[in-house]
Design goal:
Order of helices and strands: EHHHEEHEEHHEEEEEHEEEHEHEH
Strand order of the largest sheet: 5-4-3-10-11-14
Number of strands: 15
Strand content: 15-25%
Oligomer: single chain
Radius of gyration: 31 Å
Distance between the termini: 32 Å
């Protein structure tokens, strides 16, 4: 646990002062009581609450005061809280290698079925967008809460040549940050005139804990990797990147904006030989690159060797988006505890002594 205003903790010095004051008042009361000759009068002067019970209300009050002072210092802690993932971008490989049938009935059909099952399980307020990539990448469906539109977009996939994993990431980022122009030929995005990076359809500013990045270009705000809580990208591919921007550099751009990229590799370790008109090639899964993308953005990599594995992965991702461990201010808990102890102290005083403290 930490405190956002730690300088306010000096007020805790009041607590031992009050303890000493309470001890001094008790001593004075005891001395005054001993001045009476009649023992019954002494007992009356000292009060009915002999023993430890008479100290309980003051102790509860001091504990309440301690919690109130701690609340003023604004405590925070890493806790597990419900996580409202507002936007999910599904970036799916539609290269020719996805027609391989080492994942039944084919990699493409398995990916489509699993993606649609995943979409149906999302909360109704979660918006889902779809990006397809092969030699180039494009937005098939902007983020929407309409599940029918998303499923129709997934059904419209058409296989194409080439695999540009980096382009898939950058186009996904352009959906989340429409005011930033990402150069799909290079890996250096530039800010469009008059706009600052923001969430999808006004979905919020860049994540907190910002810092300035030094470099030849004008400094820009850079978020802590994995800190953007409004959206994630799920990247599914079955092969090596053959064209377009460097996937790791593209992942670095996602990390600079705090966006997590969860990568899913579909296929078999040895790959599959596919053929076309006058050509044959073996398509292999580049797990190292996908692991690097996930690591760069604080996401995770998952391997799907079968259609069943792929559905399990999507279900696992869905559960990961439900709860999240994050540092959260817990001032309200301290304030509530202080109020409860203060009320309890007053109630016991009224019940035992017909007065407060």
């Amino acid at each position: 646990m930490s405190f956002m205003w730690p300088t306010m903790l000096w007020l805790l010095a009041i607590v031992p002062v009050l303890v000493l004051l309470y001890w001094w008042v008790l001593r004075r009361k005891r001395k005054a009581a001993l001045s009476y000759a009649n023992l019954a009068i002494v007992r009356s002067a000292m009060g009915r609450g002999h023993g430890f019970r008479r100290h309980v209300p003051p102790l509860l009050f001091l504990a309440s005061l301690t919690l109130m002072i701690a609340a003023v210092a604004r405590p925070s802690a890493v806790v597990t809280l419900p996580f409202n993932q507002q936007t999910v971008i599904l970036a799916i490989d539609v290269s020719l290698s996805m027609r391989a049938d080492d994942v039944e009935p084919s990699r493409m059909e398995a990916a489509q079925a699993a993606a649609k099952a995943y979409v149906e399980e999302q909360p109704r307020d979660t918006r889902v967008g779809v990006v397809s990539f092969a030699g180039t990448a494009s937005v098939v469906q902007p983020p929407t809460a309409n599940r029918e539109d998303v499923n129709a977009a997934i059904d419209r996939f058409r296989l194409q040549r080439g695999t540009a994993v980096g382009s898939g990431i950058l186009v996904s980022l352009s959906v989340l940050f429409p005011d930033v122009e990402f150069d799909l030929r290079a890996t250096n995005p530039r800010q469009r005139s008059g706009g600052a990076a923001g969430g999808p359809r006004g979905g919020g500013a860049i994540a907190p804990r910002l810092k300035e990045q030094e470099g030849p270009d004008p400094p820009r705000q850079v978020a802590e990797p994995g800190s953007y809580g409004s959206a994630v990208i799920i990247l599914l591919t079955d092969g090596q990147s053959t064209t377009g921007p460097d996937p790791i550099e593209s992942a670095r751009m996602a990390a600079e904006r705090g966006v997590r990229v969860y990568t899913v590799g579909i296929g078999t370790p040895n790959g599959e030989i596919i053929a076309g008109e006058g050509w044959r090639m073996r398509v292999r899964l580049d797990e190292d690159a996908l692991k690097g993308i996930a690591k760069e953005t604080r996401g995770e990599y998952f391997y799907a060797g079968t259609a069943v594995d792929l559905k399990k992965i999507y279900a696992n991702l869905n559960s990961r988006f439900v709860m999240e461990r994050k540092e959260t201010e817990i001032t309200s808990f301290f304030a509530a505890g202080a109020a409860i102890l203060a009320l309890l102290s007053a109630m016991l005083s009224l019940v035992w002594y017909n007065r407060i403290l």
